[in-house]
Amino acid sequence: MSQEAVARSAAIAAKKKFNWQLWGLLFVLPEIIIFLMFLWIPIVKGVVYSFYNVDFVNGNSFVGLQNYRDVVSSEDFWMAIRNTLYYMFLCVIIGFWVPAVVAIAVSELKRFQGLARVAGYLPSVIPAIVLYGMWVWFYDPIGPINTMLTSLGLEQIDFFSKGMSMVSIVIMETWQNFGGAVLIYIAAIVGIPKDLYEAAEIDGASVWQRIRSITLPSMKPLLILMFLLQIINTSQSFQAQMAMTGGGPDNATLTYLLLMYREAFTYLHFGKATAMGSMLFGVMVVLSFLYLKLQRRSETA
Amino acid sequence: MKKLTAIASCVLLTSMLVTACGSGGDIKEPASNNVSSSTAATSETNTSGGDTAAAGETEAKQEPVTITVQGQKPDKKEAIEQLNLKIDRFKSANPYVTIKTDDWEYNPNEIGIKMAANNAPTEFTSYLTEGRTLAERSWAADLTTLINNWTHKDDLNPIMTKPVTVDGKIYGVPVDAYVMTITLNKKIFEEKGVPLPPLDWTWDDLIDAAKKVNDPAKGIAGFIPMGKGNEAGWNWTNFLYAAGGDVQTIADGKVTAAFNSEAGLKALQLYQSLKDADVLPKNWALGYGDALNLFNQGRGAMVMCGSGNAADAAINTGGISKDDIIVYPIPSMTKGGKHTGVLGGSFKVINPKASEQEQKTAFDWITSEYYTDDFVNAIDSEITTRKNENKIYVPQTIFYWKPESEFGKKFTDMLAKHDNVFTYDPALLSLLEGKPEAEYEAQQTYAEISTIVQKVFTTKNLDLQKVLNDAASKIQSEVYDKIQIKQ
Fold first, then answer.
1. B47 or A87: which carries more pLDDT confidence?
2. Option in A249, A251, A266 nearest B109 (CB)
3. B282 contact A CB<8A
4. What is the set of domains in chain B, with CATH numbers?
5. Number of domains in chain A
6. What is the DSSP letter of B182?
7. Distance of CA A76 to CAs A81, A84, A259, Å?
8. In A, residues 91-120, which contact B (CB 8 Å cutoff)?
């Protein structure tokens, strides 16, 4: 009798649990469908296409690893990888520390903090196409920067020369993008317990000591996270290069994604482009795992 | 029990949501069916009425058919007005046809997506230079039979049918064409007190004129070549052609790079001397639009573009007076030499994914007013409308008709009536010599040549012949050697 009751209650519990799971499943279903349609199926299709000669009208034909062989044997491919790595390096050297420094400086401000935050974020509001037009003018031989240099009796800078063009693009992108990162850093700084600072002040710590011993250590996990995110983002850069230099001069700003774009939409070699995409996807997956691992480690630390 | 109904209704809701998502693309279907069935009704009454335009046609043609035709961007009001009138005329002659317009403008970077997504219009205007690309990828319908059955097939201008003929088949209906030219801003020449060079000028005349009008302090460049993107290669190819060179040669089923020839070296030396003379804009990164903008702003005295295109932009966008603009041919390498430039233009393409009936209707739509007074009158009234808006009409230099034909004369007479039509020097037309673009992998070849051009613009002390040879051997091994020519 009692056994039966236990069994029945167990059955009811199981049914309840099942109902709950069904409910949950139903709620995620739309997301699953949308992700499937716009993300996972395209990714899988992209990988599959990389083994085919893509022809929308007459049907695709399987070519094995031919696309990969063609891509790897092209000079531009290696050039694009070098350029992308150089670009990522420049973004770290020129761009990575700026938002952190600005965030700390803003949080140390006694007055006008709100104004400073808004001013920092403003460049991000400018639409990309306006931004490129604006900076092409800034960098123009008769534009404001060079006019200022000449009036100071200095040498003009050729911003789009082979050596300078990538640096010029990184400066522009840093200017545009640092606002968003500043807000994230400020949020982190605000989250640091106030009593730590108060204790430090009572102990007579200077501003610099406060920053070094309290602010920076508290921001460390976030800095690592932002660094990895930046690496992931910058490895996929091509917008500015396409709009401002078209990958030139002499392929000096030809990034991996720009080459991929060209293969697909200018040369119409969709198979080769998807092969490049699949390779990039592989690298991204590795980076993402690294990111997850680092994040977990910083959590346990 | 309550729970069960809740779950059931939830399932129902989700499935409705999903089906709504899934059929998003088909929603239009019933609506268009309605439209066509209503037109079908009209066509039936018409045929029972006896003689209509459709009566003489075959049985299959009276089925209702919907085609999407090349539209115009919303800012081109005069052209839209004429297009709508043409649609009305076509519909009254062919009542079973429903016509929709699509204002997508052909772009080599977008056509792949359009074809993959299967939403290219039934007919669209493409660049003359895209003939082989479209044909080889089966993105243009084979019109050989339709053209051969067309009454005007022998009236077409042979210069224009050649680029759309690929491996003996015709893939498009020619519209108009141009040969690359150099457009000069007369005002800058006058302000500097520099006399205009002779119309049959040479490379030396070009360098000489550019040096004299150049004014870096004011930011005025003597000559604006395009340097960014594939346009850089396209611009330079004109000088390669003028020097008698070729981009590639085709023999024994093999494509061979030929731009590293003697002529190629000469053309690159010309760019080098323009660079050394410091007559080019400081910023090399100028695409098509950037170069034309500089010219429109009066920041350059000369720009290279397809015959009237730079003039059109300078006058109607830049606000430069039409009397201050003059069009020159590509200069010849030596005095008395040929003024060869790249041949470009536009032609009508029919979507191969359309049904046979739609293709036939689209062909009828494209050619319905070819060689008729309606065609001339439409442009006539477009020019009149433009006059009221203080806009200038800039005609092309080559058309689908033969220039010496009766119809050609009619068109020229119509243009002569108006004072808001840009006129070319009559001597110019006889100097222009058009040469089609490279047939195989033109875009990738241009990309390679663009890097050469950019090297010249940004690097000092180059070994030009070596640069050319390196690029030629690279494109040879990476691209040309893999091309299989259909015999």
1. A87
2. A266
3. yes
4. 179-337+432-482 (3.40.190.10)
5. 2
6. E
7. 9, 12, 8
8. none
Q: Where are the beta strands (DSSP E) in B356-402?
A: 398-399
Residues of chain B with pLDDT below 70 are 1-61, 486-487
pLDDT of amino acid B115: 87
Q: What is the pLDDT of residues B168-207, one digit of tens each?
A: 899 999 999 999 999 999 999 999 999 999 999 999 999 9
Q: At what angle do helices A165-190 and A216-234 cross, to 10 degrees?
A: 140
Give contacts of A 235-254 with B, CB under 8 A: 244-251
CATH number at residue A281: 1.10.3720.10
B388 touches A: beta carbon within 8 Å = no
B7 touching chain A per CB within 8 A: yes
Residues A163 and A270 occupy one common structural domain: yes
The answer to whether ipTM exceeds 0.95 is no
For B241-261, write each residue's pLDDT tens digit: 999 999 999 988 899 999 999
A22 in B contact zone (CB under 8 Å): yes
Rounded CA-CA distance B466/B446 in Å is 18
- In chain B, the residue whose alpha carbon lies closest to the alpha carbon of A29 is B14
Query: Is A203 in the same domain as A94?
Result: yes
Please tell me which of the candidates B133, B232, B284 has its beta carbon nearest to residue A160: B284
Does residue A89 surpass a pLDDT of 70? yes
Six-digit token pair at A114? 């709100």
Q: Are residues A23 and A85 in the same domain?
A: no
pLDDT at A133 (0 to 100): 86
Provide the mean pLDDT of chain A: 87
Say if residue A61's pLDDT is above 90: no
**More confident site: A191 or A275:** A275
User: What is the extent of the structural domain holding A280?
Assistant: 66-300
A293: in domain = yes
**Does some domain include residue A60?**
no
For the cut 90, the answer to whether the pLDDT of residue A248 exceeds it is no
Residues 6+ apart with CB under 8 A from B476: B256, B257
Is B108 part of the contact surface with chain A (CB cutoff 8 Å)?
yes
pLDDT band at A298 (very low <50, low <70, confident <90, very high): low
Beta strand spans in B307-370 (E) = 325-329, 339-350
Residue A54 lies in a domain: no
Distance separating alpha carbons of residues B188 and B400, to the nearest angstrom: 35
Q: Which of B437, B475, B358 is nearest to B36 (CA)?
A: B358
Question: CA of A34: which chain B residue's CA is closest?
Answer: B21
Same domain assignment for residues A169 and A212 = yes
Asked if B443's CB is within 8 angstroms of A270's CB, the reply is no
Q: What is the pLDDT of residue B269?
A: 95
Please indicate, yes or no, whether residues A41 and A183 belong to a single structural domain of this protein.
Answer: no
Nearest chain B residue (CA) to A69: B478
Q: Which residues contact residue B274 at a Cβ distance below 8 angstroms, ignoring those fewer than 6 apart?
A: B207, B210, B222, B223, B225, B280
Q: How close, in Å, is residue A90 to chain B by CA atoms?
A: 21
| Tally of residues, chain A | 301
A151 touching B, CB under 8 A?
Answer: no
Residue A69: CB partners within 8 Å, gap ≥ 6?
none
A61 found inside a domain: no
pTM of the model: 0.80
Task: Tell me, yes or no, whether A7 and A119 share the same domain.
Answer: no
**A41 and A160 belong to one structural domain:** no
